[in-house]
Amino acid sequence: MVDVGTPILQAPTAEGAHDQHMVLNMGPQHPSTHGVLRLVLEIDGEIVVRLYPEIGYLHTGIEKTCEAKFYQQVVPLTDRVDYLGPMANNLCYCLAVEKLLGLEIPERAQWIRVLLTELTRLNSHLIWLGTHAMDIGALTVFLYTFREREDILRIFEAVAGQRMMTSYFRIGGLSMEPPLDLFDRIQAFIRTFPEKIDEYSNLLTGNPIFRNRLMGVGLLSAGDAVALAVTGPTMRASGIDFDLRRDMPYSSYEKFQFKVPVSNRCDCWGRYEVRLIEMRESVKIIQQALDGMPGGPIKADAPKIVLPDREKMKTQMEALIHHFKIVTEGFNVPAGEVYQGIESGHGQMGYYVVSDGTAKPHRVHMRYPGFATLQALETMCKGRMLADVVAVIGSIDIVLGEIDR
Amino acid sequence: MLDGLPDHPAVKAILDWNSEALTDALFDRGELTLTVSSEKICEAVAAVKDAGYNAFEDMTAVDWLPSEPRFQISYHILSHRYKERIRLKTWVDSSDPAIESITSVWPGANYYEREVFDLFGIRFEGHPNLRRILLPEEWVGHPLRKDYPVEGYR
Q: What is the per-residue pLDDT across A13-55, written as a single tens digit (0 to 9) for each?
């Protein structure tokens, strides 16, 4: 048995002013903790002296489960990690395994992946905006953002048959050709969406309560952001200009024109501004994807890895054999290790897949942005008012499913 | 082992720091993996940090039971300047698995090392708060080890 160490928050001692401090428990069932995050706070009056996040309430051992599944069976598991951005999870895992296999993905599949991943980002940001504003006290925005989120979920349902746990991206491409009117539906959605962003902005940007609760709150310097492995919009709001989509492109992102918003404010307001602009940029990417959508196949030409089309399976002996073999035995992946990073709605997501040459992964490690960002919470809240903790948790956009895995 | 690699800034940084500590280098599937000896991991990490690999991204372990040394520890480090990622790798054997903590170089490795401690049972010397992070404190065993059953102990 290994020593588990001493608790971070000792009982108050009688030395100096320390005995004035109070230890306060917040969560795991607190409405502002976005799930089951528990914070242990040491407070001096209303000032936060120390803050200690206690996580693990949603731990399901998903990385262990992956080791017992075939490569293709892991895809549905990934949906459940960051349950607000299912397509991004699918994409990251599939890209990692495709890199191990050395598979070439057809252009059309790559573009549809970009299209749907950007919709996922909008979905994720809409939930962030709604819940963040609700934490601050502006309830209306929540109802508005969930109205638009519903449209996105309907698109997901049309494309994958599922609203949240999509599993639409498969190793080697997509599970099936999207329905005929899908692109028209997405076009209709993004035609009106920029006005909706204006609507949210009108409700919040000029709102004095919202401004005062966010401006100058939750300061995180650029140095601290990098040192604490903070990524994504939170890092860009601290003045670091780095986005994996632009700087280390994957899935043909290099063919799209978009700006990466950066703010030097380092506070919650900066994060709010950065995410709002990111939503507008996502709309631009979606528009480009719709305009230039190439034709062609949606699955890689690898019959031993990619499931055959239904029609072929029923008419061709060879396709039937491949189908049977893939489903019952999986496919062997050459030994090696790869790390694939993508920019999800919350920051840099990464899948580290180690193969030992068999049909089941030897190890799947998931790097999710929320886990690292949570480390910076104490830096952002220390010496500030207790009520600011709520604003800061909202601004870093955490999902406990991805933190606990 | 270093064919075509010596010009790489990370390889150069490691060679300049201590060429004997670098035990293997591999460029596979577009990713550079440098294996260093486990006693010197903290210095190696500091050396690549000085060479421009400024952002710690990820760290985890892999259990290679029954081979020895049993645990592989991988650090993924990103460079905002070179727009590139490297993997530092090291090996820890199964009798009293322990390695130096890199939290002095990157405080952001804190949770990652606690996670590896929790799920693999590898100790990190010099870690500021080495406790279980995802599982309850009274949990017995380390689930991501290969000899731990997938269904858990009943």
A: 445 545 678 888 887 777 666 778 888 888 888 888 888 888 8
Residue at A18 is within a domain: no
Q: Which helix (DSSP H) or strand (DSSP E) does residue A151 occupy?
A: helix A139-160
**CA distances (Å), B79 to each of A258, A339, A375, B43, B55, in order?**
22, 15, 21, 18, 6
B19 domain residue, yes or no: yes
Is residue B121 less than 8 Å (CB to CB) from chain A? yes
Q: Per-residue pLDDT for B152 more than 80? A: no
Residue B131 within a domain: no
Beta partners for residue A353, in sequence order:
A338, A364
Q: Average pLDDT in the A125-154 region?
A: 90
Contact between chains at A228 and B129 (C-beta distance less than 8 A): no
How distant, in Å, are the alpha carbons of A151, B11, B16, B51, B102 from that of B47?
50, 10, 9, 6, 12
Q: How many domains does chain A have?
A: 1
Percent of chain A scoring above 90 in pLDDT? 42
Range of the domain at B24: 9-106
pLDDT the model gives residue A19? 60
Domain contains A163 = yes
Among B62, B110, B119, the residue with its CB nearest the CB of A375 is: B110
**Residue A278: pLDDT band with limits 50, 70, 90:** very high
Contact with chain A for residue B109, Cβ under 8 A: yes
Spatial distance between the Cα atoms of A377 and B107, rounded to a whole number of angstroms: 13
Domain at A269, CATH number: 1.10.645.10
Give the pLDDT confidence score for residue A3 in this predicted structure. 42
Number of structural domains found in chain B: 1
Residue B71 lies in a domain: yes
Helix (H) or strand (E) holding A26: strand A22-26
Query: Is residue A9 assigned to a domain?
Result: no
Q: Is residue A296 within 8 angstroms of chain B, CB to CB?
A: no
Residues of B (62-81) whose Cβ lies below 8 Å from A: 62-63, 74, 76, 78, 80
- β-partners of residue B85 are B78
- Contact residues, chain B, for A56 at CB < 8 Å: 132-136
Contact criterion met (CB < 8 Å) for A339 and B135: no
- The pLDDT, as a whole number, for residue B3 is 64
- Within a domain: B88: yes
The ipTM, to two decimals, is 0.91
Query: Among B33, B58, B88, which would you mutate to test the A interface (most chain A Cβ atoms within 10 Å of its Cβ)?
Result: B58
